[in-house]
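Exercise 7.
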Amino acid sequence: METKKIAFAVIYLALLVTHLSEAQNCSQPQKGILDGEVILGLLFPFHSSEDGKCISSISDVDTIQILEAAKFAVSRFNQRYSIPGLRIGLEAWDSCRSEEIAVERSLLFLGDRVNVIDSNGDVCPNRKLRIGMVADEISSTSRAVASLLTNAWTPQISYGGTAPDLSDKEKYPYLLRTVPSDKYQAQAMVDVAKRIGWKYVNVIYTEEDDHQRAFQAFKDIAGEQGICFANEHGIKQKTTVLAAFESFLADFSRKPNAKAVVAFVTQEHAGYLLKAAQENGHLDLQWFFSYEGMTNPIVLIQGAPLAARGMMGMAPAIFTVNVQDFDDYFRSLTPETVSTESNPWFAEYWQEKYQCNLPGSSKYPSQCDQTAVDSHSSSYISYPYIPTTLNAIDTFSSVVRDLHDSLCGINHAGVCDEMLTVDSDELLQKLKQVTLQATDNMMEVNFDENGDIAPIYDIANYNGSVFSLVGNWTSGILSLDVSKVTMWVGDDPKTGSDLPVSECGSPCTDSQCETAEEKKVYIPGDVILGGIFPIHGKGSSDQDCGTLDAEGVIQLEAMLFALEQIN
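Solution. The predicted structure, written as tokens, is:
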């Protein structure tokens, strides 16, 4: 109990300093507001940051969909469960992809919990229940916010933080997430590489927290399972010079047996890698991207159509869900229909997205007209984090309804005292017990003891004309039909048993592969049959092989012949 008191004192002092700072600066950061009696906080990364401050540069214009998805889910709940005097509201801030800014704005959310004193000196109790936060798209800011909210006993659901360490309930007991941990993605990607027959690969990653942690998880698991790295390179986060990417590919070409490239990179870096490969003739490389590198595969294909042929990608299955009712809602939005109070960034989004000026702006050569409206409707592509954002809001909404009915009574209007004083641990347990039922276009969601969801990944492949699903990985079980996978060597498509190999060679002379698994014959397939044959006689010790045994070679060839006949 003493620990909680100390933590509360620290949080209170931080809130006091924050409010004093605001009073001196006479300014507050932009905030989107939907009024309600129960308030959810939301962080999303719209702008970039430098030196701990938001800047005008937009990090990803389509992140505006996250805010609109949160608004959509809140409004849907309020309409579906019309409880007199009880509406869920929203306060949304731009985290600017900065840990410092994310924490500052979380403090603003917590600060509004504090009771105020009126002019007569009387305490005015805060009748709004600030139930928790939905934050953030990236792991670093999710982690920073979780550290703060843990000390304030405030639940948080991250819709995008995938770092494995966020499952640590000693550090982040009040954090749940609606995306699977990257430790599962790493295992899934290793399983795919093994199924295809890759044992010697190049690995490249963006030097940013999420990508580095995903790379490290892959490296640890791959090393344990006999896959060795020909090259591994980190790309500095702001690198956009094509020559830098060409230098990485030049390194890859020095070890031509390593055809496979496993990439944990941003979508932007994925585009540069493919462009460098196409312009420099590296069309025999086989690309396998983690989910962030293929957020929008169409952009990659359009940017480097030849190099993109045969590329594979892995993504949480929840990211590939199409939420039709939200899609229809977002397509219908225009600057005239979106409230600046609920979304003060929408006009900026519209101008940046469609490169036109709204009234009062002169940044772009032309004015926004019906062309932008038509493009908004016809060229819309759903942002991957829409389903996970909706699930996070729906989880909190489910608990709000449960708390109201169980603590206040079904017929009670508004928020009762029992809701305002609900124990934080009880609230956390109720969140973990939520199950969102599967619907026609949404998967079932429930949480384990660490606040994580079941890991389900889709595996996709671009065969040169169509980008399609070729398999999935569900809680450790890989289902991959290699006959549906197409890769390209130059202008030649390869599929099934003809897929390009990525092996060190026999014998392997790469010093980095000293721990590689012993030599074996491997034929890719959906059902794998193992075999052990006396290819050599016994050596001088139990750990050594002796001279070649021709009879053992004949036995192996007999097995290979039988498999060939069966297939």
